[in-house]
Design goal:
There is one protein chain. This protein is mainly alpha-helical. 63% of the residues lie in helices and 0% in strands. The protein contains three helices and no strands.
Length: 82
């Protein structure tokens, strides 16, 4: 698979997460850390969602936040270069 060069502009929290992955995996390359992040996201996306996990009074609020997060993650995935 060929790699493509690109410049990205992301929020600070994304860079923080990339740096956390670099430290936890012992890697120096940001590109490799981003590849780990994408692989982890795709793995999580394939896991079945269980609605009965949330057993609190704020279930509806949590579901709304989860829906917003999933929508944003799907949008980010659609915007990624292949």
């Amino acid at each position: 698979m060929a790699k493509k060069s690109s410049t990205i502009h992301v929020e600070d929290f994304v860079w923080d997460e990339i740096e956390n992955i670099q430290k936890s995996q012992g890697i120096s390359s940001r590109n490799t850390a981003i590849e780990y992040l994408v692989a982890e996201y795709r793995g999580l996306k394939r896991q079945p969602v269980k609605d009965d996990i949330i057993a609190t009074d704020n279930k509806e609020e949590v579901e709304i936040q989860t829906d917003k997060l999933l929508k944003k993650l799907n949008q980010m995935e659609d915007d990624m270069l292949e």
